[in-house]
Write a structure and sequence with these properties.
Strands 1, 2, 3, 4 and 6 form a five-stranded antiparallel β-sheet that branches. Helices cover 52% and strands 10% of the residues. The model has no long low-confidence stretch (mean pLDDT 87). The chain has three domains: 91 residues, no CATH class; 96 residues, Phosphorylase Kinase, domain 1, CATH 3.30.200.20; 188 residues, no CATH class. It is globular, with a radius of gyration of 22 Å. It has 16 helices and 13 strands.
């Protein structure tokens, strides 16, 4: 994959130098390379595929042709043979699944980048799901990350400088190392379950500790329908709006009250019930926030809502994103607010089904590219950006209408 992308980049440059349409050559190359990378990562397990999924939301780092191709990786991965899964369970828990459980379904309930999930029933009759990590994924973490980063660099597919990519990948590595430890995820599930216990219509599974280990995690089965079903014709708008409200309220509360967010917005990690309940799965990727960073985020939001352009420049510099010698004009800030913050700055209910923020951001990319030397990496914001961007994508797919500003205001 890396060799193909790098040679394609060289050929594209050569063709443009001998009289080809440079812009068209580059666009064609990016599209072909994005599809090649997506196809290759889609065949792999582990960090490579996971990074591809994350990169699909990193619109500020990669060209749109690449992120569009990588969105294919949000779909479920092909499952692994049951014999392999059975061996992992025996290695981690000391016996075969048919001995440890009253019933264990050999057909996977879901498959993802670093593991797959099976339905089962415990000896005392509890319906559960068993998440089993693919063997060798943890050992390949660093080499997978380095290889994906190398392919993107050699192919000229990175829109920002080396420091920003290195900082972003370092943050992804830290989060993925945590995600590969299911004991850590079990602690996360308990933490979020306790936090949301009193929140109306938010369901988080319970940990079945006696059937869990570092690479096997057993949780209570929490039924629900796929989130993307809400976007289909015939679904009542009131149901879309209620589930959308729960999704936005959940992330807002986690950030400002729990100070720790669910950081994987893949739609497969959520489900809904007909009464409007939001079900949340997969707590491998979570991101805690310290008070100083939260205070900077709050000041940035204040300045955005108040259209305080001087305060916006000061806030974005304080947060570490822009170098202190630069500043945006009020007109430039208005364009960015229009593209990134419209759901938050508008009062009333925001109609995500008719939103076009992705196209607005794409229009601003050339402006940002010309000022690449202005920006600094902020690893702390990598997962938050992913969570907020993923929430937007999910709410848009659901065609939900949500009063986002009303949810944010109490926390400022």
């Amino acid at each position: 994959m890396t060799a193909s992308v790098a040679s394609g980049y060289a050929k594209s440059k050569a063709r443009s130098l001998i009289g080809g349409d440079a812009e068209e050559e580059e666009r064609s190359f990016r599209k072909a390379s994005g599809e090649r990378i997506a196809a290759t990562l889609g065949e792999l397990k582990g960090a490579a595929m996971k990074v591809g999924q994350m990169a699909s939301a990193a619109k500020e780092l990669f060209p749109p042709e690449v992120t569009e191709a990588l969105t294919k990786l949000q779909r479920e991965a092909p499952p692994m043979e049951f014999e392999v899964i059975s061996e992992v369970i025996a290695s981690e828990l000391g016996d075969a699944p048919e001995v440890l459980f009253q019933h264990f379904d050999p057909e996977p309930f879901a498959a993802a980048s670093i593991g797959q999930v099976h339905r089962a029933r415990t000896d005392d009759g509890r319906e559960v799901v068993v998440k089993v990590q693919y063997p060798g994924v943890d050992q390949a973490l660093d080499s997978d990350l380095q290889q994906v980063k190398l392919a993107l660099r050699l192919g000229g597919l990175v829109k920002v400088d080396k420091r920003m990519i290195d900082a972003t990948f370092a943050e992804l590595r830290d989060r993925m190392e945590e995600e590969l430890d299911y004991c850590n995820e079990a602690d996360n599930v308990r933490h979020f379950h306790a936090f949301h216990a009193d929140h109306e219509k938010v369901a988080v599974p319970e940990v079945i500790g006696e059937r869990s280990a570092k690479r096997v995690l057993t949780l209570s089965y929490e039924p629900g329908r796929p989130l993307h079903d809400l976007g289909r014709p015939g679904v009542p708008q009131a149901l879309r709006d209620e589930v959308g409200y729960r999704l936005a309220d959940m992330l807002t509360r986690q950030l400002f009250e729990l100070k720790c967010i669910h950081g994987d917005p893949n739609p497969g990690n959520f489900a809904y019930r007909d009464d409007g309940t939001l079900v949340v799965y997969d707590f491998g990727c979570v991101k805690p926030f310290e008070d100083p960073m939260l205070a900077k985020i709050q000041r940035l939001l204040h300045a955005t809502f108040d259209r305080d352009y001087q305060g916006l420049n000061a806030s974005i510099i304080a947060i570490g994103r822009m170098r202190p010698e630069h500043s945006l004009t009020p007109e430039e800030w208005e364009r960015w607010i229009h593209a990134l913050a419209e759901p938050f700055v508008e009062g009333g209910t925001y109609d995500y089904g008719n939103a076009d923020l992705g196209a607005r951001v794409k229009d601003l990319i050339p402006w940002a590219m010309k000022r690449a030397h202005w920006w600094e990496p902020v690893p702390d914001l990598t997962i938050l950006n992913r969570a907020v961007g993923g929430m937007y994508d999910n709410l848009r797919e659901m065609k939900a209408r949500v009063p986002v500003r009303d949810l944010v205001d109490p926390h400022l």
